[in-house]
Design goal:
seven-stranded mixed β-sheet; 52% strand; 125 residues; mainly beta; 0% helix; four-stranded antiparallel β-sheet
Length: 125
């Protein structure tokens, strides 16, 4: 069993930065794929970024087109934590952000076994 807890959300202005954290407990999840998703009011939960383990110390990251070049996903296995660095935030980035873990991180919500409770990010114009 893996428990995930997100933190780092808040209210910021357009162009600001935030770093979200996803802390895992229960068992080490260095070999798990981890994804970030977000859900805006009245919209479906959508994929943001994912990172998979490629063996040894190699990880592979992939981003949604809407955040590519602005967001960076990274992980610190010693701390069992995955981060989402968000730069150049825009009002359309406003949403609840969720992290999720599964054997393989994909763009599909159904491929994940564990989810956090979410953290709110609000970007004012």
């Amino acid at each position: 069993q893996v428990q995930l807890v997100e933190s780092g959300g808040g209210l910021v202005q357009t162009g600001d930065s935030l770093r979200l954290s996803c802390a895992a407990s229960g068992r080490t999840f260095s070999s798990y794929g981890v994804g970030w998703f977000r859900q805006a009011p009245g919209k479906e939960r959508e994929f943001v970024a994912r990172v998979n383990w490629g063996g040894s110390s190699t990880y592979y990251a992939y981003y949604a087109d809407s955040v590519k070049g602005r967001f960076t996903i990274s992980r610190d296995n010693a701390k069992n934590t995955v981060y989402l660095q968000m730069n150049g935030l825009k009002p359309e980035d406003t949403a609840i952000y969720y992290c999720a873990a599964g054997k393989i991180a994909t763009m599909k919500r159904d491929d994940y076994d564990y989810w956090g409770q979410g953290t709110q990010v609000t970007v004012s114009s």
